[in-house]
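Exercise 3.2. Students should predict the tertiary structure of the chain below and write it as structure tokens, then compare their answer with the key that follows.

Predict this chain's 3D structure.
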Amino acid sequence: MRRTLALAMLTLLVSTGYMYAQNHSIQFTQGTWSEIKQQAAGQSKMIFVDAYATWCGPCKWMAKTVFTNDTVADFYNANFINTQMDMEKGEAIELAKLWAIKAYPTLLFFSPEGELLHQTCGALPVAPFVELGKTALQPSQQIATKLKAYHNGKTDPDFTVELINLLFKSCMPYDTICKQYFLTQTDADLSNKRNWELIKKITGNMDSREFRYLENNPGIFETLYDSSEVRKKLQDIYTGFLLYAIYKETEADYQNKRNTILGKKTPVAEKAIADADIIFYEKHKKWDEYVTAAESYFSKYGTNDPSQLNNIAYVIYENTKDKTALRKALAWAKQSVALNETYFNLDTYACLLYATGNKSAAIKTEEKAIALAKDDSNKAMVTELETQLKKFKTGN
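Answer key:
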């Protein structure tokens, strides 16, 4: 009798919604964009769109880790009509153009009628993702509201810089507003904290007035702020200027732009060139020059970055059989392991040991890499490393 009553009570609780249910996932609605809007209008709910691409790793991470969280599911299912769109298929191709999608994932919030109200780009963990949804529900905090206020004349510096930062973070166009803002700032204003933070984060054009001021007056900024950050900003701009030529222009264009930076005659400019030369020689498969450029870089700037050491060593392993070059790469791989031992750089070190004739050490090192990959539960990497180990043992 008690079992019958208990079962009846359980049924009643479930049917009336008084059980604490776990959603386990955001419930994503399928359908055309028109159908999604109709459903949202019928329920008087905003629309959340997960704009993704099938090749996007962070998109997959959010789908697996964040969208399946109970707190996330409860909040988004209660407050939004949710949908996912592969922005490279079907009608989403045109919607991606309409919404000016620049990166994946982009997380968008619309009115029931389809007006874009708020967005951000990039993967978010659980708590920030829930906070994003809460912000999107508050009209005063929506990007659309802030943009409307700006265009209606709210252009005081603090508000405008806040808006620029928000647009930047959300992968939305900010160039025009940024240019108009800097026109309101005097040269003396450019070094204040608000403007330095904006220059540091957003400025990327070597011809812009604000960058030229920074370039011509680094001492002012280094006196006020972290000097290493000032130098890094200058170097990042120079490097970006050179990388554009490497990937978008001709070898002659690169040499011309390289000469432009060289003409600056500063240590920051020289380091930017040293960085870019390595990338240039890799891009054009000039392996002798690549090795020489890497050796020159490490000789002048040190070898304290394990990722950089590992990456350069592995590029050499993959692209040359020259024993002298391989021995240099071996030393750099060994230094990478000494700085921070991972299964990635252990694998590189093992490959170079094998390539330079030390088979037994290569086997031991690769076995160590496999053990670390197993500890990290990286099954795909374990399989790859085990295949490499078999090659070391059999020669095939």
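Discussion points: Residues 150 and 316 are 52 Å apart (CA to CA). Residues 1-21 have pLDDT under 50 and may be disordered.
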